[in-house]
């Protein structure tokens, strides 16, 4: 967390010397005491209200946001399919494809081989040569499409997906659902965070329901979604 | 593949169902850690050993260079003069320092070829300074990237150091032009700039790895750093001659050793020795090359190991 400057250099020095946490940083335990076992071939949906800890749990499973207590054991390296890949707004689409693909661990050769299919899949060149324009000139839908195209360009062993399916227009959504099915087929285990309950029941066979960082329910997707919907409907009344 | 997470509280892991088992949750093996080990699972995001880590960093070298070039392009993409600023920024810096130190404070008296002397100093120091400044923000300024993708985190500070090296090479082109204008034809000793620069790059990268780790934990460090760096600059003889100062016998022996061993001063004098005709060995501190090599080795190796030790914690921010 990039904190604001408080108390100036002297106070900062004292904090550094004493290794005390900066007052601008407050630790929030977004997920607490969650335990589960996932098996090869399972597609697991994560549901819960905003801020219930779904995305944090995914990052912890990926090993990107290490847990304060407890551990995550996996086979292989889980990869997080964030729609927000590491791209630079001031660079052209072309260069972002190369940069993003390299960031995901592809070799130069692989990038060259997959480049055309990434651009084609994103569809950014359908309305003119947008690949040679900076990312900041793209509409939000176009940028999201390009990011999804880069992130999903290669198969993953364990796949963690955070709200990727609500990207782009209807046509792109159809294509991305298909790409998603392919990725699922290639991956051992898939985790999917989504607020669209249809997506969860359609693509997952099991679901975890998180509430305020704790696990409320773990079971067959249809049952968990039904219980979750019942509880939110009750609160709405 | 299976993926168990042992609970944070030991009571939950040892609590045997069915008494008190929360409804809606399946019954888990009592010791999930052992269960995971039995199925050959490893801790996600665990830090690799040092040598595999270095190998992994090497295998990501294309990302490191692509990231550096991309940042460099993006940096000036919105200004009208574009990449020209790469050269203009250090030139303007040198002009300001010439005005203040050369003309107003007259440090140029007694220094031969003051313009090349000053410009070399400013360019070479800017490289160290900017590497450390950007290195300190390499992790804290890229948390989004760190939390989204797997790669050896050292790639970020190393990439920023490479970016600064590219900037410096552009500046050195300008410097060569200035030297020619000042009536200094190219000499064979210019080649000595390459090893000097290599040693300085390793040193600055190592130190920026240290700063990247420290600032990832304490972002305030990035606020403090400019003051430290400015003090360091004034103590390193960027715009005045260290040799002139040390000719005075009133300088205490301890201070003399400190000033002469100062890595920034060593790098500056080596570069001036290589590039400026007439700077000569008189301006070099004793054992300059050995000192530069020692600093590079200590900072490079130490910085890399120090950074690696916190590898799995950078995502916490």
Automatic annotation (TrEMBL), chain A:
Pfam families: ABC_tran. InterPro entries: AAA+_ATPase (IPR003593), ABC_transporter-like_ATP-bd (IPR003439), ABC_transporter-like_CS (IPR017871), ABC_transpr_TagH-like (IPR015860), Bact_Polysacc_Export_ATP-bd (IPR050683), P-loop_NTPase (IPR027417). One of its GO terms (molecular function) is ATP binding. SUPFAM superfamilies: P-loop containing nucleoside triphosphate hydrolases (SSF52540). GO terms for cellular component: membrane. Keywords: ATP-binding, Nucleotide-binding, Transport. The keyword Nucleotide-binding applies. PROSITE patterns: ABC_TRANSPORTER_1 (PS00211), ABC_TRANSPORTER_2 (PS50893). The keyword Amino-acid biosynthesis does not apply. Residues 14-237 form the ABC transporter domain. Belongs to the ABC transporter superfamily. This is Teichoic acid transport system ATP-binding protein. The lineage of its organism: Bacteria, Bacillati, Actinomycetota, Actinomycetes, Kitasatosporales.
């Amino acid at each position: 967390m990039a904190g604001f400057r408080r108390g100036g250099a002297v106070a900062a020095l004292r904090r550094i010397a004493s290794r005390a946490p900066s007052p601008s940083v407050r630790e929030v335990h977004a997920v607490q005491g969650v335990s589960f076992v996932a098996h090869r071939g399972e597609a697991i949906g994560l549901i819960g209200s905003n801020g219930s800890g779904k995305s944090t749990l995914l990052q912890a499973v990926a090993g990107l946001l290490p847990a304060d207590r407890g551990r995550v054991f996996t086979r292989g390296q889980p990869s997080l399919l964030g729609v927000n890949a590491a791209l630079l707004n001031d660079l052209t689409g072309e260069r972002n494809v190369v940069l993003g693909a390299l960031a995901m661990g592809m070799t130069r050769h692989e990038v060259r081989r997959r480049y055309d299919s990434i651009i084609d899949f994103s569809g950014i060149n359908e309305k003119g040569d947008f690949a040679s324009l900076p990312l900041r000139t793209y509409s939000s839908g176009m940028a999201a499409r390009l990011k999804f195209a880069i992130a999903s360009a290669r198969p993953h062993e364990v796949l963690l997906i955070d709200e990727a399916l609500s990207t782009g227009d209807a046509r792109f959504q159809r294509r991305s659902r298909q790409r998603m099915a392919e990725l699922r087929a290639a991956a051992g285990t898939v985790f999917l965070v989504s607020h669209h309950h249809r997506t969860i029941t359609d693509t997952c066979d099991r679901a975890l329901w998180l509430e305020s960082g704790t696990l409320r329910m773990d079971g067959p997707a249809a049952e968990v979604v039904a219980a979750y919907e019942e509880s939110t409907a009750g609160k709405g009344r | 593949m299976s993926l168990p997470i042992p609970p944070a509280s030991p009571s939950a892991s040892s609590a045997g169902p069915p008494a008190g088992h929360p409804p809606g949750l399946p019954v888990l093996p009592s010791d999930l850690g052992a269960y995971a080990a039995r199925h050959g699972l490893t801790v996600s995001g665990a830090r690799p050993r040092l040598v595999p880590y270095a190998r992994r960093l090497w295998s990501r070298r294309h990302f490191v260079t692509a990231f550096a070039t991309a940042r460099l392009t993006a940096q000036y993409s919105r200004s009208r003069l574009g990449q020209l600023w790469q050269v203009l920024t250090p030139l303007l810096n040198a002009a300001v320092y010439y005005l203040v130190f050369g003309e107003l404070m007259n440090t140029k008296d007694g220094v031969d070829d003051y313009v090349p002397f000053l410009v070399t100093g400013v360019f070479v120091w800017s490289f160290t300074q900017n590497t450390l400044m950007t290195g300190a923000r390499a992790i804290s300024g890229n948390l989004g990237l760190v939390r989204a993708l797997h790669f050896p985190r050292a790639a970020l500070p190393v990439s920023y150091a490479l970016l600064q090296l590219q900037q410096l090479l552009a500046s050195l082109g300008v410097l060569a032009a200035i030297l020619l204008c000042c009536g200094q034809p190219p000499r064979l000793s210019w080649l000595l700039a390459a090893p000097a620069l290599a040693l300085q790059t390793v040193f600055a990268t190592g130190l920026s790895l240290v700063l990247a780790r420290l600032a990832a934990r304490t972002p305030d460090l990035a606020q403090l750093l400019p003051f430290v760096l400015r003090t360091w600059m004034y103590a390193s003889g960027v715009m005045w001659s260290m040799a002139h100062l040390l000719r005075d016998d009133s300088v205490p022996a301890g201070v003399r050793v400190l000033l002469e061993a100062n890595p920034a001063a060593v790098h500056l004098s080596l570069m001036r020795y290589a590039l400026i005709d007439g700077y000569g060995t008189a301006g070099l501190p004793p054992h300059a090359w050995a000192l530069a090599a020692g600093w590079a080795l200590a900072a490079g190796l130490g910085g890399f190991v120090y950074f690696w030790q916190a590898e799995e914690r950078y995502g916490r921010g």
